[in-house]
Amino acid sequence: MRPLVKGVAAVLLAAPLTVLAQHAQARIVCQDQFQIIRGEALPTPYCADHYLAKVARSYGMRISAGDVRNPSTKRRICEFIGNDTRIYSICSGWRPEGGGDSRR
Question: What is the domain partition of the chain in residue ranges?
Fold first, then answer.
């Protein structure tokens, strides 16, 4: 009976560690404006917002990715630096000469 109790205790102690390890792997990984999913780079709004904020900060703007999720803030950033080749596709609908629908 004692070995069984020790075995059950070991399993119960190891279970939370397994859950924590699986949770750590669930975070979003971005490479520029692309999210890495199973080794593939896919464009996602989440990573695009993070990348746009990063580029805006390189121009001296004090901006976070959360700020970029506000459409008026995104428009303001894209009007200011939208011709930068790093974010050209992110700002395609927000630049004054964006060619296409203007999301104003």
Answer: 2-81
Burial of 10 (0-12, 13-18, 19+ CB in 10 A): exposed
Beta bridge partners of 41: 36
Contacts of residue 90, Cβ cutoff 8 Å, sequence gap at least 6: 33, 48, 51, 52, 78
The sign of the torsion formed by the CA atoms of 59, 65, 67, 73 equals positive
Distance CA 10, CA 7 (A): 5
Structure tokens at 99: 């060619």
Please state whether the predicted TM-score (pTM) of the whole model is above 0.90.
Answer: no
Write the pLDDT tens digit of every residue in 37-87.
999 999 999 999 999 999 999 999 999 999 999 999 999 999 999 889 999
